[in-house]
Amino acid sequence: MVVELASSHPGFADPVYRARRNDIAALALNYRPGTPIPAAEYTAQEHEIWAVVSRELAVKHDRYATAEYLEGAARLGLPRDRIPQLEEVSRALEPLTGFRYVPAAGLVPLRDFYGVLADGLFHSTQYIRHHSVPFYTPEPDVIHEVIGHANALAHDRYAALYRLAGAAARRVESEEALEFVSKVFWFTLEFGVMRERGELRAYGAGILSSYGEIEEFRGMDIRPLDVAAMGTTHYDITKYQDVLFQADSLQHLEEVVGDFWATCDDDSIAKLVATAV
Ligand SMILES: [Fe+2]
Question: Within a domain: residue 248?
Fold first, then answer.
């Protein structure tokens, strides 16, 4: 297994890192559903990256994360001093909300990635970012997947929203409708913000796993929660997200986005696209 890295990737010119990435990706290829997720033998340096980032993020979460995300984090109790194995994350999560982790070697096709959320399965990378820039990653690493997503998946109400997104991805047929569903996911469960106790707080995994972005989101272009707008707004994954959509509360998110995912189909999405242009 050879993992491709862009020339701008912090680990591009580091042969040791590239060999690690290939070895860790091979673990996912050898995974068979129903068996334990193969353990990655992380180096002391890799555990240290997790420890540093997880300590800093925990402080920021107290200030910037929603109450339910913090509740999920408290229930899950991720280790702060070392990278947990995905199998360990899965075992802690399953009794809470039924979600389990599945290792992914690389990018998972949209329909599979979202579709299996309906079954309570979450595809996750297993590698960690390059040590030269511990607070940055150009791609979703184990810090994003576990600190960002698992803490949310540990709360019943967020877990229910992930499942509804999965059901929507399975229900829609066209690639356009699937893309719409995935964009709504992007602007909510990846980059969603919410008004809570008079402040703007984040529940999106992309913000809550990013040391830099978490300090910036309150200053972004904050727009009202609107499914048609979210499903048709362009985004650039390589930059901080400058357009964010704000829910008035978790209940508001459930009513607007949860109900959309619960009921949408190709026709209803085509109508929303038509109203958005
Ligand atoms: Fe993510």
Answer: yes
Indicate which CATH number applies to the domain containing 267: 1.10.800.10
pTM of the model as a whole = 0.96
Cα(191)–Cα(216) distance, rounded to whole angstroms? 12
Per residue in 163-189, pLDDT tens? 999 999 999 999 999 999 999 999 999
The active-site residue out of 54, 90, 124, 209 is: 209
Set 123, 149, 196, 213: catalytic member = 149
- CA 146/CA 41 separation, integer angstroms: 17
Structural domain containing residue 76 = 15-276
Q: Which residues pair with 122 in a beta bridge?
A: 101
> What are residue 201's DSSP bridge partners?
194
**What is the number of structural domains in the chain?**
1
Tokens 């309906």 identify what position?
118
- How far away, in angstroms, is 104 Cα from ligand 1 center? 12
| Pair 187, 233: CB distance under 8 Å | yes
CA of 234 to the centre of ligand 1 (A): 17
The predicted structure's pLDDT at residue 56 = 96
| C-alpha 189 – ligand 1 centre gap (Å) | 8
Whether residue 61 lies in the annotated active site: no
Q: Is 149 annotated as a binding residue?
A: yes
